[in-house]
Amino acid sequence: MNPAEARALDSSRYPPHLSEAGFMQPCPRRIRATRGGEIMIDTVSAFYVWEVPLYPAYYVPSEDVDPSMIALESTQTFESGPFAGLVHVKWDAVDAWFEEDEEVFGGHPRSPYARVDAIRSSRHIRVELGGVVLAESAAPVLLFETGLPTRHYVQRTDVFFSHLERTDTVTYCPYKGTTSDYWSATVGGKTHRDLAWSYAYPNVAVAAIAGLVAFYDERVDTFLDGVPVTRPRTKFHEEE
Predict the structure, then answer these.
(1) What kind and span of H or E run contains 60?
(2) Quick check: 189 pLDDT over 80?
(3) How far apart are CA 232 and CA 197, in angstroms?
(4) pLDDT at residue number 10
(5) DSSP state of 17
(6) CATH number of 115-229: 3.40.50.1010, 2.170.150.40, 3.40.50.2020, 2.40.50.1070?
(7) What is the edge-to-edge ordering of all strands in the sheet holding 47-49?
């Protein structure tokens, strides 16, 4: 394998998040939040604030927040500094968040600097675990997401479900939607919990992955066009 091939299959080569903690930008979208069937937040003057580098939080003017929310211990009010006059309501302190009229899932707002693209490919992909083939396809959909390694989604007819067992796990992503399925894999007498997942009804922007199955490349052996891909190291790397 020449150096160019090695670089191409280095799974650490993906665009990182560029924002840093403390970064602040205006949010041009109407932001609302509901609790107990009532609107607790309704603003067109919100800000994105990156409390951590990976994704932002909503900070909203105090006058656009119901007083009952401001009284909660989970609500942070700022009286001075760059966030003066703004309020931060923790994500799970309300029942639902909305950007315009679309509900936002996943535990945090969508970053305006993150991009997610689902692109059809003819690259040959094979997924193995302990030498056992879990999936093999010549028509994957590659999902490129800012800050994450490329994910390889394959048709269910290209997955060997005899090695998989469905679980009741559900996860949420503000960019892709809510998962419909998760599977664990048992190979060599060992069960690897929640190794693969699927979105039956993903967000419109990534509709091409609907019903397809992806595996955590951090925990399996993935081969593209017969060449092994280095396992990326993310927060999912050690989950077994």
Answers:
(1) strand 57-61
(2) yes
(3) 17
(4) 72
(5) P
(6) 2.170.150.40
(7) 24-26, 47-49, 57-61, 86-89, 75-77
Look at the block and give the residue holding tokens 């989604």: 153
> Residue 199 burial by CB count (10 A; 0-12/13-18/19+): exposed, middle or buried?
buried
Whose tokens are 């007083």? That residue is: 67
Helix (H, G, I), strand (E, B) or coil at 180: coil
CA atoms within 13 A on the CB side of 48: 22
pLDDT tier, 13 (very low <50, low <70, confident <90, very high otherwise)? confident
Percent of the chain with pLDDT over 90: 82
Predicted local confidence at residue 235, as pLDDT: 73
Residues with Cβ within 8 Å of residue 44, at least 6 apart in sequence? 29, 30, 31
What is the Rg, in whole angstroms, of the alpha carbon atoms belonging to the chain?
A: 21
Identify the CA nearest to 145 among candidates 46, 51, 24, 16: 16
DSSP state of 204: G
Rounded to 10 degrees, the C-alpha dihedral 75/80/81/87 comes to: 20
Strands 125-129 vs 116-120: parallel, antiparallel or unpaired: unpaired
Q: Are 175 and 110 in contact (CB under 8 A)?
A: yes
Provide the residue type at 219 as one letter.
Answer: R
Helix (H) or strand (E) holding 70: helix 67-70
Calculate the alpha carbon distances from 141 to 54, 69, 117 in Å: 25, 43, 10
Per-domain residue ranges of the chain:
24-104, 115-229
